[in-house]
Every structure is written in structure tokens, then in C-alpha cells.
Amino acid sequence: MKIIHVVGARPNFMKVAPVLRALSRRTSVEQILVHTGQHYDANMSDVFFAQLGIPAPDVNLEVGSGSHAAQTADIMRRFEPVVLEHKPDLVLVYGDVNSTVAAALVCAKLLVRLGHVEAGLRSFDRNMPEEINRLVTDQLADMLFTPSEDGDINLQREGVPLSRIYRVGNVMIDSLVRLLPQAAADGSRPEKPYALVTLHRPSNVDDSETLRAILACLVGVSEKFEVIFPTHPRTRRRIAEFGLDTDKLTFLDPLSYLDFLALQREAAVVITDSGGIQEETTFLGVPCLTLRNNTERPVTVSMGTNILVGQDPGRLRHELSKIMAGERKTGTIPPLWDGLASERIAGLVAGPPTVSDRDKILHDVSR
Ligand code: UD1
Question: What tens digit of pLDDT does each residue of 170-214 get?
Fold first, then answer.
């Protein structure tokens, strides 16, 4: 069986890595990895391939940046001939970025079977481009792999037949479980307590007043904690453009997977607008304040350590003062976030391991 995996942007490299690994142990499966080139800087892409042990892509579509329509259309134009050439039995797409929806549309039109890893998540906020990508991809997919129960419920509400929905758990946590020991051993972190910050959503960084208010609040935090801020290229550009640079915050270039994990693990608090970081902090038991009004990952709030503070600096300050006073939200790890989600996907896609697969697994384990 031939499977094409499509990824293109930073948050999905840690999702494809464990699925590639799990399926590489199936002798019946041939895998082709397509990188759309949505993220192309070395520190937004190459470093993740190296640390996560992802083989070099078989195909790079090299689309680069652009408006949503231009980027999505470019990916579709360049991906269609790849599908026609390789004639896969299944295409797997990940997450909710433009690369995901573009590849899904191509497959649907060519009647190629499509699997969506991280299906069913909903913020119910169509101002987020990712929500549009989620809705469309899930309508088109034949196999929907969900990380949590809310995903199954959302999909059924939208009319997706139960027979297409497979709750497998969280593949991003598979990568975390595998690489956390290495991150703990390798990564360096400050001696004194620190807050770790990431921001890249257009709603937080593209408006000068919103960004100014958030940075002012972070400067307040810096009186108590060092504020470490690995900065997405978009955010870096906005800070320069709006003249908001400050030496009170430690701005860094985007970090590698292992360096970021090492910092996350020991942070006093993580302040973010990312999706995946809400999940990682929940798994790690680290308090997370999310600068959004909603989340497509509600289990991180109901079960985990995540608190939504919206774009309200007063609320952010209030929650920070509680954390600084030692009042941390505690949580539990959601079911099936156990490091084995990708094995479940491999079983569903390629069937149970055969005798020769078992030999290969034993060989891999013994190395
Ligand atoms: C994309 C995803 C978002 C995800 C995020 C993680 C969509 C709609 N959004 O947002 O869901 O959380 O990735 O980072 O797909 N840029 C560089 N170098 C790069 C990549 C981007 O400088 O390697 C700059 C470009 O100026 C580009 C901008 O960042 O225009 C935004 O990149 P883009 O891929 O359009 O969206 P992200 O904001 O990264």
C-alpha cells in the first residue's frame, strides 16, 4: 500500500514524525513524504526534521509565503501532479494549516482516499483561518483520527458518519513522550524562574494597539520572572514595524523542538496563542495562559492546566499574579495522550502487524 503524507508548517512536523515511524515498521507500506514549503526558514523547518528524525522529503513543493488564497492555490497546483504520478492508496494530512486543506481538496477531486490526523477540533470561530481549514478538511476526509472525545462529538454534529471517526489520541504527545528525556538532558534553561512566551496569531500581533498592550503586560511580568520570548518571523516583523522593541524581554529566534521542550518543561508559566503548546503544557502539568477568546482544544481547559485569558491585559495580569503567588491550576492528562496514538493510526491504516512486521519491530528495538 502506498501512502503520501503532506506537511508544510512547523506545528505539523511533530505530528507526522511518529506516524512515519509507526508505518515504517509495516513491510507492506510504501511512504512518500511531501513538504509543501509553507514554512521554509531553517529554524521553522529543517531543524525539526533533524531532531524528530524525519527523513528528507521525497518532494518539496516550495510554495513559500503568500495570501491565503495564493498559498492554498499554489499548493493545490503543485500537489495535483504528485498525486497523479504516485497514485497513492491513501493521503494523510495533519492539523489545520493551509497545506492541510489544500492537499485535502486535491485528493477529494481526484477521488483519492484521505485521512485527517487531528480531526474534529473546533474553536467555533470562523475568524480563524484554521477553523475554515478544519471544517473543510473534515468534510472531505474518509478517515478522521481524533485526539479527544470532543472531536468525535463535533464531527457527528456536522453529519460525519461514525464509521469514519477513529479516536486515536494525540500524535503530538507521541513525539513529546519520545523526546522529552533527550530534551531534559540536552536543553539549557535559566537558573531563576521564567515565563515562556510565544505569539503569532494575526489577531494578537497584526494590530499595533493589541500587541502594545500585550507587550506592556509582559514587561510587568519581567519584574518578577525573566520573560523568554522565541519570536515567530511575523511577530518579529510587527514588533519592529510598530516600534515596540524593549530590552526588558528576552527575544530569541524561533527555537528548535528540543530546546523549546526543555524550556517549556521547567517554565513557571507559559503564555501563548499557539494550539499545540496548550496541549504540551497540559501533558507537562505546566500552567498555560492562552491569549485567545476560544480554543479548539477544550480538554486542555476542562482537564488540563490551560486558562483562556482572551486579549484582556487585566485578566492576564490577574492570572499571572495568582501564579506568582504560587496558585497554579493543576490538571490531569487526557485519555489516550499516552505516546501510542501513531501506533493506533498505523493499525487502522495498515492492519495489525504481520509476522515480518514483528521481525522488523524487534530488529528496530534491538538497535
Ligand atoms: C501557520 C498556520 C498556523 C500555525 C502557524 C505556526 C495557516 C493558516 N496558519 O501560521 O495555524 O499555528 O503556521 O507557525 O496555515 N514566515 C517566515 N519564514 C517561514 C515561514 C513564515 O518568515 O519559514 C513568515 C512569512 O512572512 C509569512 C508569515 O511568516 O508571510 C506567516 O507564515 P504563514 O505560513 O502564512 O502562517 P503562520 O503565521 O506561520
Answer: 999 999 999 999 998 876 778 889 999 999 999 999 999 999 999
The answer to whether 61 touches 81, Cβ cutoff 8 Å, is no
200 is catalytic: yes
- Range 323-332 contact pairs with CB under 8 angstroms and sequence separation of 24 or more: 323/268, 323/269, 323/287, 323/289, 324/224, 324/225, 324/268, 328/287, 329/287, 329/305, 330/285, 330/305, 331/282, 331/285, 331/303, 331/304, 331/305, 331/306, 332/303, 332/304
Q: Which of 200, 232, 318, 363 is catalytic?
A: 200
Q: Please report, for residues 124, 145, 235, 242, 277, the alpha-carbon distance to residue 173 in angstroms, rounded to integers and kept in the order given.
A: 24, 14, 26, 36, 11
The helix (run of H) or strand (run of E) holding residue 343 is helix 341-350
DSSP 44-103: GTHHHHHHHTPPPPSEE-------HHHHHHHHHHHHHHHHHHH--SEEEEETTSHHHHHH
Query: In the predicted model, is pLDDT for residue 3 greater than 60?
Result: yes
CA dist., res. 284 & res. 82, Å (int): 39
Atom in ligand 1 nearest the alpha carbon of residue 276: 12
Extract the C-alpha cell encoding 59: 518532494
Ligand 1 centroid from CA 231, angstroms: 12
Distances (CA, A) of 178 to 21, 331, 339, 342: 12, 21, 7, 12
Give the Å distances, CA to CA, from 96 to 14, 37, 81, 121, 183: 14, 15, 23, 9, 26
Closest CA to 106 of 78, 65, 139: 78
Which residues does a 6 A CB cutoff place in the pocket of ligand 1? 9-11, 38-41, 44, 65, 96-98, 129-130, 200, 232-234
- Reference 14, options 133, 118, 130, 159; nearest CA is 118
CA distance 13 to 265: 20
Check if the beta carbon of residue 341 is closer than 8 Å to that of residue 18.
yes
- Spatial CB neighbours of 124, under 8 Å, sequence gap ≥ 6: 131, 294
Q: What is the pLDDT of residues 228-261, one digit of tens each?
A: 999 999 999 999 999 999 999 999 999 999 999 9
Element (H, E) at 177: helix 171-186
Position with higher pLDDT, 123 vs 352: 123
